[in-house]
Amino acid sequence: MVDIADRSASLFPVVAAALVDGEGQVLLQQRPAGKALAGLWEFPGGKLEPGESPEDALVRELREELGIMVTADALEPAGFATEALPGRHLLLLLYVIRSWQGTPVALEADGLIWCEPAAMGAWPMPPADGPLVRQLRSYLGDSVMSVVAADSGTV
Fold first, then answer.
1. Nearest to 105 by CA among 19, 36, 13
2. 32, 104, 145, 149: most buried by Cβ count inside 10 Å?
3. Which GO terms are recorded in the biological process aspect for this UniProt protein (predicted)?
């Protein structure tokens, strides 16, 4: 929980994507060795650069991390989480993405997995992702999802 009394802490915004395929599975990536929280599974995404909007940051991060092209209008805001860190407050913004161009490849992660939303708890994840998993399950519900990747038909 964030300590609102700590006014010296700066806000640290991070964006994350829940890529959802045509079968309703969600993509997770494994944090690489040598980085904080190495080996844990997370939603792809990353930090905003100065002056960058959350949407532009996520489009950039997905290109860099997965080699896929996403347009800002494909981003569905789905939830957020906060966590107090030393000297800053993490604000993690989650977007659902159902359409993209290309096939996701682990360019900066140690691995990728597609998993059912109900099974995401089986994969060890950073603490801030816990609330996002619960919000994502609620957001997706039991709806039937269809994802069309522009270059490969139905995913």
1. 19
2. 104
3. DNA repair; DNA replication
Q: Are the C-beta atoms of residues 2 and 83 closer than 8 Å to each other?
A: yes
- Please state, in angstroms and rounded to a whole number, the distance separating the CA atoms of residues 133 and 82: 13
Q: What is the pLDDT of residues 41-100, one digit of tens each?
A: 999 999 999 999 999 999 999 999 999 999 999 999 999 999 998 999 999 999 999 999
Residue type, 106: A
Which CATH topology does 10-141 take?
Nucleoside Triphosphate Pyrophosphohydrolase (3.90.79)
Q: What is the pTM of this model?
A: 0.85
> Residue 8 has what pLDDT?
66
Other C-beta atoms closer than 10 Å to the C-beta of 88 total 14
What is the rounded distance in angstroms from the CA atom of residue 151 to the CA atom of residue 155? 10
